[in-house]
Batch of 2 targets.
Target 1
Amino acid sequence: MGYVAIKGGESAISEAVALLDFLRAKDSNEPPLSIGGIQHQLHALHSRVLSEGGIYHPELAALAIKQSAGDTLEAAFYLRAYRSTCPRIGITPVQKTEQMRLIRRISAAFKEIPGGQMLGPTPDYLQRLFRFELLDESPHRFRQIAKTWLQNIPDDSLPTSFPKVLDSLRAEGLLPPVQTQSHQPFDITRQPLVFPVPRSAALATMSRAETGSLLAIAYSNMRGYGDIHPTVAELRVGYLPVMLPHPISGELMEAGDVLMTECEIVAMYEAPSKDSKPTFGLGYGACLGHNEVKAISIAILDRALQKGQQQGVENPSEDPEFVLLHIDGIESMGFASHYKMPHYVTFQSDLDRLRTTQQQGESL
């Protein structure tokens, strides 16, 4: 049996797409969302799409959110599709996150850290109560928020970069020494994941993975299907200067900056060998945009995957194949959505087998 043609064909598809625009514009009393408004007023949503899209383009990330009506998976899909059309004109050297221009920096490991804690923008200490005044927010009051806050900034403002918290632990010998990478970083956009894969492949895959998927698998480890109970040594949010070699002189120059979140955790202590002293294990997570839950989840899974590689896999979160092949939102969405496509041939085969089985059972 062949596929049954959909009545209306191309015309029906065009009207289905037009209906999406109708849903967006049916309440014409409301002004259309601006790209700048999405980027700044919906910054948490914007950061999530920016990270999962795998390309740093704030304006197009806002456009993707508007075009997808706020569907994060669809929005990330737009960015991924756009990224695949972009030429690669250069490769940066290793970027040093010590140079991040910080807007937030905290540590759960120590009360006092070099440079001090910087709470920055965060809802961590809010009561989750509605602010009903936002239901009818006047433009004048909205504009005054930023002006009032900027007036209160002291002249002797804090420095924008600080030393790493882990440096003090490493100086005491409580952390393993920094290992130089012996191979080129794995390029997940050009190389398939053929297991086993290096740690750089796992970190790159997780950095653009779907936030909810990462959180779910990391949470499974935290609550018992694993034993990574981390302490956040340092969580950083800020703008990282992107350094590129000058095309003529070869000297490194700042080409721009990207907003990113970085998390370093310590978890468990172990001896790498019988002759060495035990040290803390490390987990690392980083992603584009301001997305702290994602960075923490990546760091937990990074530590879990290292444990699975060193001591054997005991839980799903320690299995690189299970983790890395089930966290990409675009692939997951595509597989789930393909079930909406015509499956007449395969289902007709299932019907025929079921009817035949029932008939054979009745004849016995």
Note: The chain has two domains: 9-83, 97-123+139-334.
Target 2
Amino acid sequence: MKALVYTQPGEMQWLDREMPQAAPGEVVLEIEAVGICGSDMHAWHGHDPRRQPGLVLGHEFVGRVVESKASGVEHGTRWTGNPLIVCGTCEYCVQGRNNLCANRTMVGMTRPGAYAEYMSIPAASLIAMPAQMDATTAALTEPAATAWHAINLSMRVLTRPLHECRVLVIGGGAIGMLAGLLLKQLGVAALTMTELNALRRAAIARHIGCAVVDPRTAPLDEAAFDYVIDAVGAKATRQQAFAAVKPGGAIMHIGLQDWASEIDMRKLTLAEITLQGTYTYTTADLRATVAALARGVFGDLSWVEERRLADGAQAFVDLDQGRCASAKIVLKP
């Protein structure tokens, strides 16, 4: 089979790879579509020691079963999936918080991912989807579930209902875009987004219909937002989030562009700011997100760009150089 392989920082190659084999309890999927995630870009830059050259990346996928060694999973059926391979028995799994599984591994990190014509995965990770759902929509389940999980976590700590809040989303990448679309569906009228890329600012204005600014030229009001989502996770955006949030407000930290930086602990304490982190999604979130995508909760998704998997190397370069208006590129074999 052919696969798009991460060969060294800044380089992907379209190479021959051995066809995967299903172990007991696993299936082999023929990949129909797979998205490029920010974490894949992070690995491509050489910034993720967990993802080493020689690896097939890709964890936002949909595919059709071509081999099954799992009961109840039939040849030819279509599935999306949870890229987290969880144990099902640790304290977090039994609590329904399997995103925090103490023994988790991951597709596209500890085992070959979906930037390939075929991929193996445990059947327990498969997520059912409507038979009529198109492949690009299904491939958005994983990033959309990340936004879904984060916003649901935040609603537990907001002092007023979400639709009453003035909300800021920092970053118009895929997670920021999907979060913005979901926030609008949840009734948030006072929504502002920030984005450095002019092409993406135009896409946000067109598809979400909210205020969108370049923070380099239009500084945000300080202490003005009840709820802030940092969908970038850089030192500068963490500082922006703390400056923008109101006393008593909440910050949801999703992005991990930088792994460490100082935060304003004085404001966190004296202004009773709630700072939350979030990691991916639970299986329940993934199932709820599939249903939401099927209902059109995230809009028509016309902002998503499709390309051939064989052209994926150029897609990474274009994303890196800011030449894409779309916050999400979905690759198809």
Note: The first helix runs from residue 38 to 44.
